[in-house]
Design brief:
6-stranded antiparallel β-sheet
């Protein structure tokens, strides 16, 4: 049996420009994205502009929306996006894969899963290392039950670090009593 057969003429796929994400703000609706209609759609509830991507209860580890970007090997790229929880409480993930091998690329810093349940737009940022990859696939999905609905908008991919949020100011005084245990058990309550 055959199902969902596609024929593509060689050369029909546009040449990918290194690091160029197409339509990261979804203002051109689905252009540049492969969207699984059972798990994702374009919505008018957006961070900026008129549209955003809605991940709607995707199956565990399944693909809701993907895009492939040409990248330079042995290079770090910063992926930034805004997300907003609409319903549910499970984890949503940004998987970053080597398109040719389907291996996950190394996350250098940041977290690639979203758990915020505040209902507000939240800025997310992750740095990935391409290793030997020349084509990086961005895949939005979930790895948890009860994911509900999450909105994604204003995705950017930049080589090297962009203007990252300022680090939190240092705490001037250690608020923890005897954190180094230099005074034995003083300040600590032990439970069996």
């Amino acid at each position: 049996y055959l199902d969902d057969v596609t024929i593509t003429v060689a050369g029909d796929e546009p040449d990918l420009v290194p690091g160029e994400l197409i339509n990261g703000d979804f203002e051109e609706l689905e252009q540049g994205w492969e969207i699984h209609p059972s798990y994702a759609f374009i919505t008018t509830d957006s961070y900026t502009g008129d549209y955003a991507l809605a991940l709607d209860n995707p199956s565990t580890w399944g693909e809701a929306a993907t895009q492939t970007i040409a990248v330079e090997p042995q290079t770090e790229y910063v992926i930034t996006w805004y997300s907003k929880r609409v319903s549910g409480s499970g984890y949503f993930n940004l998987f970053v894969l080597d398109r040719d091998t389907s291996w996950n690329l190394s996350v250098v810093s940041g977290q690639n899963w979203m758990t915020d349940t505040s209902g507000n737009w939240v800025r997310n940022c992750v740095v990935v290392s391409t290793g030997t990859a020349t084509n990086m696939m961005i895949k939005w999905s979930t790895s948890d039950w009860n994911p509900g609905q999450m909105l994604i908008d204003n995705i950017t991919v930049e080589k090297d670090a962009p203007d990252e949020p300022a680090p939190l100011p240092p705490i001037e005084e250690n608020q923890l009593v005897n954190g180094g245990f230099e005074e034995g058990e003083y300040g600590w309550e032990w439970h069996a």
